Amino acid sequence: MTGTLRTKTLSSGKSYYYINLSYKDPRTNKWKAKTISTGLEVKNNKRKAEALIKQILEQYAYLEDSPLSYDSPVDSDISFCNYLDIWLAGRKFEIKNSTFEVYTFRINAIKRYFETKHYKLLDITPKILDTYFKYCLQYGKVNQKTKELEPLSVRSVRDYRNILYSVFAQATIDGILKVNPVNDVHVHGRKNKEYSEEYYFMTEDEISELLHFISKNYPRLLGITFMGAYYGLRRSEILGLKWSAVDFDKKTLSIKHTVVRVKTVNAEDETKTVAGKRVLNLFDTAESCLRRIQKEQLQNKAFFQSDYQNHDGYVFTWEDGRAYNPDYISKLFKKAMKSFGRPEITLHNLRHSCASMLINKGWDIKKLQYWLGHTDAQTTLNIYSHFIRQRLNASDNDLSQISLAAADLFA
């Protein structure tokens, strides 16, 4: 497979770089071409576009792999665990690396239960799967401290069911099974509303107090906490923020790159959802915050010189430019909140606090949905309803004054 750089001028008059791939189709043994957009304008972006060629070649290497259905048909006598491996391998080039790592973790957990039972794929029945899900609800997790088996949450077991549904759906496509055995098997337990995410909110005054506390005691977290509290950014969006996304002239902040960790740290030019890509207003305090960080980075770069490592231009890094491990930031924030006296507040809860402040300012649901990057307005409404409920319970009862006109009836 080879990749060459091409340019194309659109009707708008702007020219962009494209990568033209040439590869040999393993089914026909003939050469084919595929064009990939880089999204980069021609002006001042040639080096970036050239650097993408290697990445694109690796990403589309699967085009020259021999498809399983042509070169090695699945044996109908295959073991269940071996088929799980085949299914997982087939997903590798269809999903993000972070998602693939989640699938790998869950497939390995499923195999640990089934590998001693030596089932063939054809042996798996709804009864076997029902027994497995019930086992997970009681003993599906290992306590890392005590090594004791503990219950897995209903939500997690339903995630395992969804994966197995996809596995057996593929088995029906492969012609090994006629019916998906997961169809009539359900994970019973608490309803979604009973184990849904807890919503904790901080007031404007509490946020201000927290930021002053962070500034004195955990200065490394100051900018991160600010972006979480006032922009409602996810952890992946905060740590994925690059200077190229900050436009001081237009006063905008583009959310389009994320850094996540499952087993390894993955940096991706995409957000959690399509709606996650958004351009937000860079208000004055935020600009001051970012300019201060930028100034500190320039001083650090001058100090470390050739040892400085922030080649990707991240906003939040160690002094020598190394990117933060997302887990480290979460643990440090947890420690900071414990010291602050609000241990229940996580970095993600700042996102809810941001929503509550904007609701107080009169923002409507659609505007709030865009600011937070929610695909579904229902998610925004859930936060809204939780906040309104808490505020209602904490406020004075307005009905006391309204009902005074009828007080004489009960004198």
Short description:
By secondary structure, the protein is α+β, with helices and mostly antiparallel strands. 46% of the residues lie in helices and 12% in strands. It has 3 domains: 2-65; 72-194, DNA polymerase, domain 1 (Orthogonal Bundle); 204-394, Orthogonal Bundle (hpI Integrase, Chain A), CATH 1.10.443.
According to CATH, what is the class of the largest domain? Mainly Alpha
- As residue ranges, the low-confidence spans are 68-72, 191-197, 261-266, 271-275
N-to-C SSE string, H for helix and E for strand: EEEHHHHHEEHHHHEEEEEHHHHHH
SS elements, strand count:
10
Task: Give the terminus-to-terminus CA distance.
Answer: 91 Å
Strand-residue fraction? 5-15%
- Spatial sequence of strands, sheet with the most strands: 1-2-3
- Give the CATH superfamily of the largest domain: Intergrase catalytic core
Return the structural class: alpha+beta
Rg, Cα atoms, Å: 26 Å
Topology, pairings included?
Layout: E1 2-9, E2 15-24, E3 31-41, H1 46-59, H2 68-71, H3 80-91, H4 97-114, H5 126-139, E4 141-142, E5 149-150, H6 154-173, H7 204-217, H8 222-231, H9 235-239, E6 246-247, E7 252-255, E8 258-261, E9 265-268, E10 278-281, H10 284-304, H11 326-340, H12 349-360, H13 365-372, H14 377-394, H15 399-402
Antiparallel strand pairs: 1-2, 2-3, 4-5, 6-7, 7-10, 8-9
Helix pairs in contact: 3-4, 7-8, 8-12, 12-14, 13-14
